Amino acid sequence: MQETLSHSDRLLNLLDKAYDAPFRPDSFHDLMEAAHDFYFIKPDDFSAHALTAADYENNETISSHLARIERLLDERELENRSHPSNIASPALSTLLIDPATGMVEGNARAKDFFGQDFPVPIRKLNLEPACRAELQKLAKGAVATGGFNNQICLIRRKDDAAAHLAKCGKWVSAEAARGTGSRGLAVSIVHFEWTVEALEFCQSMFDLSVSETHVLAALLNGMSQTEIAEARCRSVETIKTQSKAILRKSGCRKITDLLVLATTYGLLVDPGKSQPASPRVETAAIARPDRTFIRPDGRRISYGVFGDPAGKPVLFIHGLVQGPFFPADMIEAFRRDGIQIIAPSRPSFGLTDAPQNWDDFNQVVIDDVMLLLPQITREPVTVVAHQGGVSHACRIAHALGSQTRNMVMVSAGIPIDEKKHLPHMSMQTRIAALGVKYTPRILETMIHIGIVNWLRKGLKPYAEHLFSNSPVDLAHFEDPRIYAICEAGILHMIEQGAKAIIYDGKAAMADWEADYLRLTCPITWLHGAQDPIIRADFLEEFVASHGGAPVELVENGGNTMHLSHSDIFHRVIAEAVAG
């Protein structure tokens, strides 16, 4: 039946399934099948498709549909997160405020947090009067004509001087999503116990002095600048100057943004402290890209420097799912062997700012490295291309010129030949390959839906879905040392939304053969024999046809090969540095 549909009918079917997604969380597989039918004319012929770049990207009607689908998704997700019966995280206290009745609903965590039963009139809610007034104002704004943007505010209980972060957004019911308006305000409150470890992590992340860290700690505990000055026996002007320094180093524009960012980091480094009633789950130690460089134009670049600070420099251009993260034992091995790993996050990944113009994405990737690298080293570097970062790595290596000592390709891709390579890819990889090239706006909406869908279920199911066609990687996920890296990498990949994945995917799926051919440095290839993205024989054929050295294949190595066989990965890097 599906084979008889016209291509426009296939598009309508895809949009129909996308409209279902906000209201049917389990419909994502149906959406993927509809997408596959849309991209490929014949079910068993993956080389046949009917797409051109101009067909859909400039179609205002389709763009309008996609924008509405994403709006519905965001509103529905806010309802799912905020409704007392649906709230997934016991670390969040949730309030629903109805300005028409003046009543407040709360989940079980809110009952414990506020020390009172719900529902309760807002005038009796255990908050300082100024905080109650602010929430009432936001609740009225949430139902007013003209819409309402999510806001972050600080709230204080009457019996507690500490400030708590609250994310406020529309309380949207299914009826409201169909156009009858918003019911009120949904408030999610984060309460986090600041530990020495969490503060030290923020100090490292922002490169703060000891004194600035003390000021940050006071701000995190809700103290005003005047109160901090009195407590530290300093002038208010001194505290204001230190606060401005903290904002500058963190890349934040205001104190509220700083508190949100610091709390995010605190939850990352010490997630168990947000849930004191639950048993702490220990995870493997991870080296994170915890430094910040501010470009002259104000853009922030997040990066890590691992191993020996005085060692031979290795520039690591990360892939997607594992990102620029490394297990502690690997970093110790690099330190022992005198190797310094420099690992920047690309634009809009992790905490690196998005490019000012997305069409300049590839050039901004190069510019970021060319501005950052001289701050760390001026020595010749070994460039490591990891997975889909390979096209960027080739362009960076060429831009560095004689400063590029050599390159190591780790699980790296090759320029995609649609007719030859697509039939051997998984469904989602095939869709991504064509989507980033021909219909990036449609694919962005599907990725948005996918992120929300799988994060509802948890990161582990999301990771397992990504590698559902790779038994070797699924087996490696049972190793907490490997899974912890993949979880951090997934969050790093999706933290700022789907657009970065699209533009990074464009670079990976483009024909970057010319960039590769411009390289004159020695190149080493390391690849998993069971890699689920690019088959080993395709890679060997490409390398041989371009006169490269033989590919070293790692038996039982998949997408996580550099982690599951870290001894081989380390040896190849050490040999490149010494060569």
Describe this structure in words.
The protein is of the alpha/beta class. It has an 8-stranded mixed beta sheet with strand order 8-9-12-10-13-14-15-16, with helices on both faces. Strands 3-2-1-6-5-4 form a 6-stranded antiparallel beta sheet, with helices on both faces. Helix 14 (361-376) crosses helix 15 (390-400) and helix 17 (427-438) crosses helix 22 (499-509). The longest helix has 23 residues, at 60-82.
Which helices and strands appear, and what pairs or packs with what?
Layout: H1 7-20, H2 28-39, H3 53-56, H4 60-82, E1 92-98, E2 103-106, H5 108-114, E3 120-121, H6 129-143, E4 151-155, E5 164-171, H7 174-180, E6 184-190, H8 196-206, H9 210-220, H10 225-232, H11 236-250, H12 255-269, E7 286-287, E8 291-294, E9 300-307, E10 312-317, E11 326-327, H13 328-336, E12 339-344, H14 361-376, E13 381-386, H15 390-400, E14 404-410, H16 418-421, H17 427-438, H18 440-457, H19 459-466, H20 471-476, H21 480-494, H22 499-509, H23 513-517, E15 523-528, H24 536-545, E16 552-554, H25 561-564, H26 566-578
Parallel strand pairs: 10-12, 10-13, 13-14, 14-15, 15-16
Antiparallel strand pairs: 1-2, 1-6, 2-3, 4-5, 5-6, 7-11, 8-9, 9-12
